[in-house]
């Protein structure tokens, strides 16, 4: 039976996303806006849901859309845990208007 180190897998995913986000920023790639074909989630949805604040900062520099909706109508910011919302909004969003409700 193969054992998976969840912390290591999470860190590896975050570092991969961070590397990709930096590449997108330097190349002005449109991939930052590309939704997943099945669930409609953008890279910002994933970073927000997992609390990858360093990735979020770079995605905001890439002009990632904080109002983009996945197939369920959720925006990246709406996926944050309540205790994390304000801190990430303050540190990452650089003064952008954020809607924390699903309306």
UniProtKB/TrEMBL annotation:
Q: Enumerate the SMART domains for this protein.
A: ANK (SM00248)
Q: Is Repeat set as a keyword in this record?
A: yes
- Family matches, as Pfam families: Ank
The UniProt entry, under InterPro entries, shows:
Ankyrin_rpt, Ankyrin_rpt-contain_sf, PP1_Regulatory_Subunit
Give UniProt keywords alphabetically.
ANK repeat, Developmental protein, Repeat
ANK repeat ranges per the UniProt record: 39-71
Does this entry carry the keyword Repeat?
A: yes
Q: Which family does it belong to?
A: Belongs to the NRARP family.
- What is the protein named? Uncharacterized protein
């Amino acid at each position: 039976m193969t054992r998976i180190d969840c912390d290591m897998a999470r860190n590896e995913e975050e570092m991969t996303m961070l590397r990709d986000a930096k590449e997108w920023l330097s190349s002005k790639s449109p991939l930052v806006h590309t939704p997943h074909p099945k669930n409609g989630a953008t890279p910002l949805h994933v970073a927000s849901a997992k609390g990858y604040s360093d990735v979020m900062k770079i995605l905001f520099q890439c002009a990632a859309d904080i109002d983009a909706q996945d197939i369920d109508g959720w925006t990246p910011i709406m996926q944050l845990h309540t205790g994390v919302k304000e801190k990430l909004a303050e540190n990452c969003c650089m003064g952008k208007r954020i809607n924390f409700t699903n309306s």
